[in-house]
Write a structure and sequence with these properties.
Helices cover 46% and strands 13% of the residues. With 252 residues, it is of the alpha/beta class. The two termini are 30 Å apart.
Length: 252
């Protein structure tokens, strides 16, 4: 079963004297949904199906950072994500499509946030055009990160690009310090151009270690959690985060 080709998927249910075939998961019976979910290798017990309103993001790091930014805005008296929205981290853009589709099939409201990169853009478009149009009775939407923060559609943007070079480089060094110290390396230098994630990966590669984006995200989350208010956050980051949170909140 290939969720990249939604027009090919049908759910068939046995009835007296025959069968009923539907092409929208939320029109299928509960047992049929569970069977299709099992066929895709997804565990019924995963908690992404329990919240009435859901925000699906690409990757655990994006989920950690976005949740902590929302908390920081809330304690600063600024608009944040709605309290009842649950953030669910997918394992990449393809998995985000899977999760969002099954939430729709459960009649749950879902907004799926995709990175503005070569992987995220086509999958966001596919989810929006091929899936959401089939569930018009369920309030749902997609968003591209770059567009949400006000960047041109052609510019690559992931969660790392919310932060300034100086700040992200400091968290990158802090989170990878133990690995670097084993090699006798004390500093990391970000290349001057390109998306932040790619630049961080090149910096780590030059130092002889592997870039771990989730490790950096945990360091950023820890730092954000210790900030009393937005005065400790760099102005460009605060502006991008404010636009992002406002855009996502509006979709709910």
């Amino acid at each position: 079963i290939d969720l990249r080709e939604p027009r090919r998927i049908r759910v068939m249910s046995e009835v007296n004297g025959g069968a009923v075939i539907v092409d929208a998961l939320n029109k299928a019976g509960r047992d049929d949904k569970v069977a299709l979910q099992a066929a895709l290798g997804m565990q019924v017990a995963r908690n992404y199906l329990v919240a009435p309103r859901n925000l699906v993001v690409e990757g655990a790091g994006a989920g950690l950072i976005l949740a902590e930014l929302s908390s920081l805005f809330e304690r600063s008296g600024k608009p944040a994500l709605p309290d009842d929205v649950r953030i669910t981290a997918a394992e990449g853009a393809s998995d985000a499509v899977y999760l969002a589709t099954f939430m729709l099939g459960q009649d749950l409201q879902v907004v799926a946030l995709f990175d503005s990169d070569p992987e995220g853009r086509p999958l966001e478009e596919r989810l929006r055009k091929d899936w959401l149009t089939r569930y018009q009775d369920v309030k749902s939407a997609t968003a591209l990160l770059g567009k949400a923060v006000g960047l041109p559609d052609t510019e690559t943007c992931t969660i790392e690009d919310l932060f300034t070079d100086q700040y992200y480089a400091s968290r990158l060094l802090e989170s990878h310090r133990e690995r670097l110290s084993k090699l006798g390396v004390a500093t990391l230098a970000l290349p001057s151009s390109g998306p932040m994630r790619a630049r961080a990966a090149r910096a780590c590669e030059s130092a002889g270690i592997q870039f771990d984006r989730d490790r950096v995200a945990r360091a950023i989350r820890k730092d954000l959690a210790q900030m009393p208010d937005l005065t400790r956050l760099a102005v460009p980051t605060a502006q991008k985060a404010e636009r992002l949170l406002k855009h996502l909140s509006g979709l709910f």
